[in-house]
Amino acid sequence: METMKIVLYGIVVLLLAGCSSSQRLVEKDTATEFTLSRELREVLYYASLAPNGHNTQMWKVGVSGDGKTLNVYLDSSRLLPVVDPEGRESLISAGAFLENLRQALGAYGFTGDIEIPGTIAVQENPLVASVTVTGGSAETADPEILKVMEIRHTDKSKYLDRPLDAGAVERLEASVPGTLRIYTKGTEEFGALRDLTMEANVIQSSSPAARAELAEWLRFSDDEAARTADGLPAEQLGLSGIVKKLYYLTTDREKAASEKFGKTSINTAEKQLYNCAGFFVVTGGHTPRGYVQAGMDMEAVWLRAAAEGISLHPMSQALEETETREKLPTAIPGGEFFQMVMRAGYVKDYGENNRIRRPLREFVFLEP
User: Fold this and answer.
1) Phi and psi at residue 169, to the nearest 5°
2) Start-to-end CA span in the chain (Å)
3) pLDDT tens digit string along 163-194?
4) Which member of 10, 139, 233, 348 has the lowest number of beta carbons within 10 Å of its beta carbon?
5) What phi, psi does 226 have (nearest 5°)?
6) Within 13 Å, how many C-alpha atoms sit on residue 68's CB side?
7) Is 73 helix (H, G, I), strand (E, B) or coil?
8) What's the pLDDT tens digit per position in 245-257?
9) What is the DSSP pairing of strand 180-184 with strand 127-134?
10) Taking the model in full, what pTM does it have?
11) Which region among 160-164, 187-191, 234-238, 315-319 has the lowest average model confidence (pLDDT)?
12) NCBIfam families this protein is in (predicted)?
């Protein structure tokens, strides 16, 4: 029996980066514990489809009594202190939430005036932004941007051997002027970033603390994924069908935190880094406000990329590890301003977001 498990584990390793899925495990739930218009509940649901580290969904939203102010906070219980000790990537995730919120408000006929404080306090559940909502809701929501939010997702699967479309690259760079850098496969910058990302992956996957933190957010059955409505089940790792079943059969939290699993992760990362058309890099200033803005820019780019049929997969390990982060400015001019690195390319079927998200009532509350 043990031999069979080892064989099955080997099959999972070989196929880990090669499958994707759009199976829905969690039903949409927009109920709140206080009265809030249907349109604003829909807006907050779409905002929650934003990308975020390990799918911890590290946000809370306080709604004023009149529904005209939405205060977005970081949820301190859902941060990642090992790989993100300064909260930089958590603020980027909050920025992505804000960008979805801004665009979803527009889709429903509202305007959202976003105010990011000059200083984001280092405290429990800090305020990230206040959004003043004006205007009336549209009778019919604009379906285009909402559909893009529904399909946008992290794609860790195997990409096609196809270069990025030059026209798409120009449109994406123009969407956030001066913020997005695209390094296509074969360029010197691409090679340098690939190698530093690989080096950082080895550091993280060799770290018991980093492996344990990741393992806490992995999910090991459909039931667990449905119950928690967060974290990383097989679908979020790009696994489906028989590969997903084998993964659940052979893996648990203890194994996921093991050195063996770490070595598997290194092999998978290497395959992914050599199997892409380029890297998208979002730049920004090194202040809390700069991180939030970088998150908004990242999501604006990601939504446009999804509309263009370009798959993205965040691989920012080189920014998370001090050793590799300090090498970036020498390896690539301007590397000190990198805030998010994403593997980019095309797949046969873009698919959609699995929408593994918590019910609104778990993160939306009425301000006192």
Assistant:
1) -60, -45
2) 58
3) 999 999 999 999 999 999 999 999 999 999 99
4) 139
5) -70, -35
6) 4
7) strand
8) 999 999 999 999 9
9) unpaired
10) 0.92
11) 234-238
12) Rv3131_FMN_oxido (NF047509)
DSSP notation for 124-173: SS-EEEEEEEESPPPSS--HHHHHHHHH--B--SPPPS-PPPHHHHHHHH
154-217+250-345 — its CATH code? 3.40.109.10
Q: How far apart are alpha carbons 181 and 279 in whole angstroms? A: 8
Query: Which tokens go with 297?
Result: 């820019």
Domain 38-151+353-366 falls under CATH 3.10.410.10:
no
Polymer length in residues for the chain: 368
At residue 340, the 3 state secondary structure works out as strand
Q: Is the dihedral of CA 174, 175, 181, 187 positive or negative?
A: negative
- Find all residues with CB under 8 Å of 36, minimum gap 6, and list them: 63, 67, 364
Axis crossing angle, helix 2-15 with helix 241-250, rounded to the nearest 10: 130
Please give the Cα distance from 214 to 201 (Å, whole number): 13
CA distance 109 to 317: 38
> What per-residue confidence (pLDDT) applies to 214?
97
Residue by residue, DSSP assigns 203-235 as: HHHT-HHHHHHHHHHB--SHHHHHHH--SB-GG
CA 236 to mean position of chain CA atoms: 10
Q: Could you say which DSSP state residue 53 is in? A: G
Domains 38-151+353-366 and 154-217+250-345 share a fold: yes
Question: Is residue 348 scored above 70 in pLDDT?
Answer: yes
Report pLDDT for 6.
44
Which amino acid does the sequence have at 136? G
- For residue 15, report the phi and psi dihedrals to the nearest 5 degrees: -105, 0
Q: Kindly list the domain boundaries of the chain, sorted by start residue.
A: 38-151+353-366, 154-217+250-345
For residue 44, give both structure tokens: 């907050």
95 within 8 A of 296, measured Cβ to Cβ:
yes
**Cα torsion angle, 51, 57, 58, 59, sign:** positive
DSSP-derived letter for residue 74 is: E
User: In terms of pLDDT, which residue wins out, 96 or 17?
Assistant: 96
Q: How far apart are CA 256 and CA 353, in angstroms?
A: 24
